């Protein structure tokens, strides 16, 4: 089949037209995106939702054979033609359509009479605030809201191809998004267990129990929204949200990018904050794979290869895309390197109230980063006196906790709603007043079809209720999920007998919004991430504050940590630093780049944890939980042999243990770096 612009390529062009040139060239250009759609679907729930949707239009889609399975585009086009030519009502999943070198595979289409209904199925939730497709527009109704742009333009492209294909003259075509209704309530038990994922002939497919029918799935939890009105505006009224060309409309945009892609031409889009997470970047010197990111920047900045290697403005903290992005502010002023940044460009328009908190403001932190680059300083910023004041309020023994969680689209239980958060794992380290460290406890619920949240809260309560020591988390995740579990307990008509005790425990260690104010527990968890932002900056971590980047930074700064955790006979089950999962592990190895995470094998063979963690960037600012979430969902929704199930569970326990040990190391490193005259 000749080179055609597919809907996935169209969506890529919306992100950045230059990416069209790099995509599909894995032998030539580095591509950091996962090539395995199975793992991505596990993380985001797309496989199960897509299969459930079929049952809303076909009583038994497997027996009726509505899915066009072939990957061959020509065969798919022929089979689609044959099915649509049949009389009466026809339902097709993965139907193929072609128009003028534009090619799509539609999730679901229903032909009835002179009408064809197109459905794009998404594992994205929608609430009562979305009344109709005009709710997807911004307040002025002059463009699609940013959050909905990828979905609406994808659907508009599909309808455009179908409308102009051979079927457009024969049928009226209407387009719909089919989304997860977060207000719906499951009326059957174990809905998500009805759709298992298996690997067959190097492909993944969803299998359901024999004879499963529409009646077995209970109340509909997917909601169709007709989008014809908005699509008409996308086609005829709105400018395409692209920096490819100002004011370009839908059809000219398609024609331009189609020509670029088919002829394999490269068009350089303007560089910006969007480049920060470019998947076509390769920083490995000597690699055989080219870096599309660096080729773009070299062409538009005229910087040498050497200058492009480090300290670009994309590295600045808080440099993600959006209004007022520091990256875009600097680029608008012709500044490409942090060494050329000027403070007046980055000054906030209006100073935000910092309340009673001491330490660096966001702007001051950015300037610490910039000034270290300007002055060639490798030394970290560390406000010893400021952090010491915080430490004075800590109560020993202190506790480090880290959670691993999932939000599955299809509910576990009767009476549950979609995307009911699941907390399936935690790790707990303690530091005693005498400096002794131990991995005190852990929890992992890896059984299939079990809602673990109440057992999770119960186990955490047992871990933390024995003293009044200070509890630490890293960022907001743990606080968010504990409040979620408390809400689940409050609304559950079948809540356990210890409901009130569990809620009281959760409220005692969390903070929550109550109207315009916050209610804070007497033993509210301390956020180590917040302490990093206010008191510590390492040039090694650059603009990242993920614990995975901060850990190598504190190790570089602390000879105490390098000596303690770089030695055998220290960390293990019967060693001075007690572990629950390691016998004698050396965490710091110069050959691994001083990064303890690199001393552990992958959770999934062949996939680096960093790549898997990127899967949750959409809903996790730090993106630290993708590997665990994907592994848990794999155990839940796949047919996994017992030996592999145990291997994955063991890997999850080790990784989560390191997450809380990383918090321990951070605090230990800080304490050793504070001079005795300040410490005392």
Explain this structure.
Strands 1, 2, 3, 4, 5 and 8 form a six-stranded mixed sheet that branches. The longest helix is centred in the last third of the chain and has 32 residues, at 642-673. The chain folds into four domains: 5-10 and 32-246, no CATH class; 273-381, no CATH class; 389-527, 2-Layer Sandwich (Nucleotidyltransferase, domain 5); 537-679, no CATH class. It is of the alpha/beta class and 680 residues long. The chain is globular and about 85 Å long. Mean pLDDT is 90; it is low at 615-623. The protein has 25 helices and 19 strands.
Mean pLDDT: 90
Radius of gyration, taken over Cα atoms and rounded to an integer in Å: 27 Å
Number of separate domains: 4
Shape: globular
Give the N-terminus to C-terminus distance in angstroms.
74 Å
Strand proportion: 15-25%
Please count the beta strands (DSSP E, at least 2 residues each): 19
What fraction, in percent, of the residue positions are helical?
25-40%
What's the short story on this structure?
With 680 residues, the protein is an alpha/beta fold.
């Amino acid at each position: 089949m000749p080179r055609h612009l597919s809907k996935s390529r169209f969506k890529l062009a919306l992100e950045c037209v230059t990416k069209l040139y790099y995509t599909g060239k894995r032998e030539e250009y580095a591509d950091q995106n996962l090539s395995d759609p199975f793992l991505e679907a596990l993380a985001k729930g797309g496989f199960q939702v897509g299969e459930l949707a079929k049952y809303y239009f076909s009583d038994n889609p497997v027996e009726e054979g509505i899915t066009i399975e072939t990957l061959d585009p020509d065969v798919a086009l022929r089979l689609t033609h044959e099915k649509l030519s049949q009389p009466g009502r026809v339902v097709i999943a993965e139907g193929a359509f072609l128009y003028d070198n534009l090619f799509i595979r539609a999730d679901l289409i229903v032909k009835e009479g002179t009408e064809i209904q197109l459905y794009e199925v998404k594992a994205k939730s929608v609430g009562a605030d979305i009344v109709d497709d005009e709710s997807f527009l911004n307040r002025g109704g002059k463009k699609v809201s940013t959050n909905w742009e990828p979905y609406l333009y994808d659907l508009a492209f599909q309808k455009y191809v179908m409308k102009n294909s051979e079927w457009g003259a024969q049928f009226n075509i209407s387009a719909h998004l089919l989304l997860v209704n977060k207000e719906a309530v499951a009326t059957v038990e174990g809905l998500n267990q009805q759709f298992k994922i298996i690997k067959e002939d190097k492909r993944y497919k969803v299998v359901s129990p024999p004879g499963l029918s529409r009646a077995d799935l209970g109340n509909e939890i997917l909601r169709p929204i007709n989008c014809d009105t908005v699509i008409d505006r996308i086609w005829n009224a709105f400018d395409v949200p692209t920096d490819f060309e100002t004011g370009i409309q839908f059809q000219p945009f398609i024609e331009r990018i189609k020509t670029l892609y088919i002829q394999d031409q490269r068009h350089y889009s303007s560089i910006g904050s969007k480049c920060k997470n470019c998947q076509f970047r390769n920083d490995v010197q000597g690699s055989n794979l080219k870096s599309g990111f660096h080729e773009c920047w070299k062409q538009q900045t005229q910087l040498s290869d050497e200058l492009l290697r480090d300290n670009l403005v994309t590295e600045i903290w808080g440099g993600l895309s959006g209004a007022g992005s520091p990256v875009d502010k600097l680029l608008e002023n012709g500044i490409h390197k942090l060494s050329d940044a000027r403070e007046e460009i980055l000054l906030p328009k209006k100073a935000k109230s910092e309340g009673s908190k001491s330490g660096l403001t966001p702007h001051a932190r950015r300037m610490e980063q910039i000034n270290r680059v300007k002055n060639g300083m490798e030394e970290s910023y560390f406000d010893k006196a400021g952090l010491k004041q915080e430490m004075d309020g800590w109560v020993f023994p202190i506790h480090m906790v880290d959670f691993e969680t999932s939000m599955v689209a299809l509910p576990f239980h009767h009476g549950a709603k979609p995307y009911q958060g699941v907390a399936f794992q935690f790790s707990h380290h303690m530091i005693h007043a005498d400096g002794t460290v131990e991995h005190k406890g852990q929890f992992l619920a890896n059984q299939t079809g079990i809602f673990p949240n109440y057992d999770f809260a119960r186990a955490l309560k047992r871990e933390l209720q024995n003293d009044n020591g200070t509890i630490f988390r890293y960022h907001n995740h743990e606080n968010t999920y504990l409040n979620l579990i408390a809400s689940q307990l409050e609304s559950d008509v079948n809540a356990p007998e210890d409901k009130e005790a569990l809620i009281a425990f959760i409220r005692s260690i969390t903070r929550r919004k109550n109207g315009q104010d916050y209610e804070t527990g007497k033993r509210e968890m301390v956020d180590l991430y917040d302490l990093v932002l206010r008191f510590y900056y390492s040039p090694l971590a650059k603009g990242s504050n993920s614990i995975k980047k901060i850990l190598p930074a504190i190790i570089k700064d602390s000879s105490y940590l390098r000596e303690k955790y770089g030695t055998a006979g220290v960390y293990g089950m019967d060693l001075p630093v007690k572990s629950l999962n390691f016998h004698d592990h050396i965490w710091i190895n110069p050959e691994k780049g001083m990064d303890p995470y690199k001393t552990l094998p992958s959770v999934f063979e062949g996939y680096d944890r960093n790549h898997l963690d990127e899967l949750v960037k959409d809903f996790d600012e730090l993106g630290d939980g993708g590997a665990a979430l994907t592994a848990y969902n794999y155990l839940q929704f796949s047919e996994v042999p017992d030996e592999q199930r145990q291997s994955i569970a063991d890997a999850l326990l080790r990784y989560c243990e390191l997450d809380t040990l990383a918090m321990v190391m951070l605090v230990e490193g800080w304490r050793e770096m504070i001079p005795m005259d300040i410490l005392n």
